[in-house]
């Protein structure tokens, strides 16, 4: 990690953790094993991200479209999230990790909602790394909820339609107050966003890596950060070309 220039470290890295099922299939194991191994990769990656000086790490754990999976797999994924919070919360808290959860929480069962809220409340004052868990998250759902909330304020006469600008929409999203992701990594070789942070990804650097999520860890994260450091971000502006030698 010492090779990395600290100025080129992204403030916010978001990861689409994909490929657990294929990791398991490749070993002749049931998909559930891949998900379990995926939790280990989460632990390693959270530590490595904090060490690298990343401020915000967002992990896509369950999408609003993952309800289309078999019920047994859904139960598995919910069980793993609960077990992760129950087992790891104390250590994450000790390490100064602040937990935040994005996604539609209201359609989750009461026990999970309470657990997620506890995790957020316990770690609210921490400042080492913000770990954002995207659970039951989908961009279209998030944007629809934000628009509903703005429409309610318009109907109540609290704001005018002309007050609705990009900043007003951003402030109603689940990610309100967080910086947009500088870098979005998707594992497993798939090259799509799958309804992840579509509003926030407007100027994110996208990186698709071949490793299945259970094989992701410190080395793959550092390699991604090194690649990120070579990217040139323009945000729509003209960037002066580097002065060529001899001119
Ligand atoms: C990522 O792995 C975990 C979740 C989407 C919850 P997958 O379960 O999507 O694994 P593949 O893509 O089928 O290999
Ligand atoms: C995206 O992966 C969702 C998560 C990583 C939680 P999927 O495996 O669900 O995405 P698709 O279906 O291949 O696009
Ligand atoms: Mg997948």
Strand content bin: 5-15%
Secondary structure: helix percent: 40-55%
Number of DSSP-assigned strands: 6
Distance between the termini: 35 Å
What class would the helix/strand composition place it in? alpha/beta
The averaged pLDDT comes out at 95
How would you describe the shape? globular
If helices are DSSP runs of H or I spanning 4 or more residues, what is the number of helices? 7
At the first level of CATH, what is the class?
Alpha Beta
Major sheet: 6 strands, parallel
**Judging by the overall fold, what is the CATH architecture?**
3-Layer(aba) Sandwich
CATH topology annotation: Undecaprenyl pyrophosphate synthetase
SSE topology string: EHHEHEHEHHEEH
The parts where pLDDT drops under 50 for at least 5 residues are none
User: How is the largest sheet built, in terms of strand order?
Assistant: 3-4-2-1-5-6
């Amino acid at each position: 990690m010492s090779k990395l220039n600290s100025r080129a470290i992204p403030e916010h890295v978001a990861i689409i953790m994909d490929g657990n099922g294929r990791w398991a299939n490749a070993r002749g194991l049931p998909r559930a094993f891949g998900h379990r191994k995926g939790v280990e990769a989460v632990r390693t990656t959270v530590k490595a991200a904090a060490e690298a000086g990343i401020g915000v790490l967002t992990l896509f754990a369950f999408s609003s479209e993952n309800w289309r999976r078999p019920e047994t797999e859904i139960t598995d994924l919910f069980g793993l999230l609960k077990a992760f919070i129950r087992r790891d919360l104390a250590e994450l808290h000790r390490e100064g990790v602040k937990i935040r959860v994005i996604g539609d929480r209201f359609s989750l069962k009461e026990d999970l909602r309470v657990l997620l809220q506890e995790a957020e409340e316990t770690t609210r004052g921490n400042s080492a790394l913000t770990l954002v868990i995207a659970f039951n998250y989908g961009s279209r759902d998030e944007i629809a909820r934000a628009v509903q909330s703005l429409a309610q304020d318009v109907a109540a006469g609290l704001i005018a339609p002309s007050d609705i600008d990009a900043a007003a929409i951003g402030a109603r999203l689940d990610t309100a107050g967080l910086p947009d992701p500088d870098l979005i990594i998707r594992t497993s070789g798939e090259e799509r966003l799958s309804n992840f942070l579509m509003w926030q990804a407007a100027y994110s650097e996208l990186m698709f890596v071949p490793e299945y999520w259970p094989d992701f860890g410190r080395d793959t994260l550092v390699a991604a950060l090194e690649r990120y450091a070579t990217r040139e971000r323009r945000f729509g502006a003209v960037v002066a070309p580097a002065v060529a030698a001899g001119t």
